[in-house]
Design a protein that fits this description.
This protein is mostly helical. The chain has a domain at 2-80: Glutaredoxin, CATH 3.40.30.10. It has 6 helices and 2 strands. It has helices spanning 23-34, 39-49, 55-64, 69-77, 82-94, 116-133, and strands at 102-105, 108-111. It has a two-stranded antiparallel ribbon. A hairpin with a 2-residue loop joins strand 1 (102-105) and strand 2.
């Protein structure tokens, strides 16, 4: 993202798999961490520690990040972000998404964990196309 600072916008949507035991609570944990300014740190821990995404593990990750534990556990336990997650899932289904991550770069759909260089090349192409259209 630093490469393109001020030129692009990154929007993250949640798409927890309905067949994975802890995907919904992991999404809640990431958003609870976001509320405290630690979304990416939690995101990275969730990927690193997967599949250990049960409630107790999520709480230990939140402690590791120095989050306010009362706020974090209340958010997760009360499913504070359920509506947001449900909206994201509805959007994913409407777009016929079947894999995460999926990226949309000016409408170009890129499915899967592709190398950074591929994403950078695609963004560069789209930025060049934008300049041509002006």
């Amino acid at each position: 993202m630093d490469t393109f600072r001020g030129k692009i916008r990154l929007i993250i949507k949640n798409y927890p798999y309905k067949y994975r035991d802890y995907s919904f609570i992991a999404a809640e944990a990431a958003l609870a961490a976001r509320d405290q300014g630690k979304y990416w740190e939690m995101h990275d821990l969730l990927l690193k520690k997967s599949p250990k995404l049960d409630r107790d593990s999520l709480i230990s990750y939140a402690k590791e990040l120095g989050l306010d534990m009362k706020k974090f556990t209340e958010s997760v336990d009360m499913k504070k972000h359920k509506d947001e997650i449900d909206r994201d899932v509805k959007l994913a289904l409407s777009l016929d998404l079947y894999n995460t991550p999926t990226f949309f770069i000016n409408g170009r759909k890129i499915v899967g964990d592709v190398p950074y260089e591929y994403l950078k090349k695609t963004v560069d192409e789209e930025l060049r196309n934008e300049k041509k259209q002006k």
